[in-house]
Automatic annotation (TrEMBL):
A Pfam family matched in the record: Flavodoxin_4
Protein name per its UniProtKB record: Flavodoxin
PROSITE patterns for the chain: FLAVODOXIN_LIKE (PS50902)
Domain spans labelled Flavodoxin-like: 3-159
Entry superkingdom: Bacteria
InterPro entries reported for this sequence: Flavodoxin/NO_synth, Flavoprotein-like_sf
Transmembrane parts of this sequence: none
Length: 165
């Protein structure tokens, strides 16, 4: 069976982590793309992102529905918005049947909230086995080598967990 990294990234932080994961281990990668993107800068990015989470919006995605049957392990990456996962990830989850998978979660933030985000994702994705999670504080602002080392360390622990179960 294969592994897949599914992620949404507004400002590039989550994309960086997804890219490091895909360079470390053999995985397919899928970037979630909403039909209508929110602004990448300024106050409106925070306002509209938070509003979409608070109102449980599921934006229309440009991505087609994907056949997840060929994947046994799925990494899901999201920015933290208002203490939760992003609305494009919510759309992906609602469009795709995720049951009986090994799930690893990663989140990027600029001020915390990842524990609540992971809790909400786990509650939404009941019926799966969670093999790890990791959060990253503004990884584009941290030294590249430091982020690579953090992600590699996490991946090593996740790979160990899902290979021993």
């Amino acid at each position: 069976m294969k592994s897949l990294v599914v992620y949404y990234s507004l400002g590039g932080n989550t994309q960086l982590i997804a890219s490091i994961i895909s360079q470390k281990i053999d995985v397919d990668i899928l970037e979630i793309r909403p039909e209508k993107e929110i602004p990448k800068k300024g106050f409106m990015k925070f306002f509209l992102g938070g509003k979409s989470v608070m109102l449980n919006e599921n934006p229309k995605l440009l991505n087609e529905k994907i056949d997840l049957d060929e994947y046994d392990t799925i990494f899901i990456g999201t920015p933290v918005w208002a203490g939760s996962y992003s609305s494009p990830i919510a759309s992906f989850i609602s469009k795709n049947h995720l049951k009986g998978k090994k799930i690893a979660l990663f989140a990027c933030h600029s001020g915390g909230g990842s524990d609540k985000c992971f809790e909400k994702l786990e509650n939404t994705l009941l019926g799966n086995e969670f093999v790890g999670n990791s959060s990253y504080n503004s990884p584009l602002k941290v030294g590249f080598d430091d982020i690579v080392m953090q992600v590699h360390s996490w991946i090593d622990s996740v790979v160990y967990l899902y290979n021993t179960k």
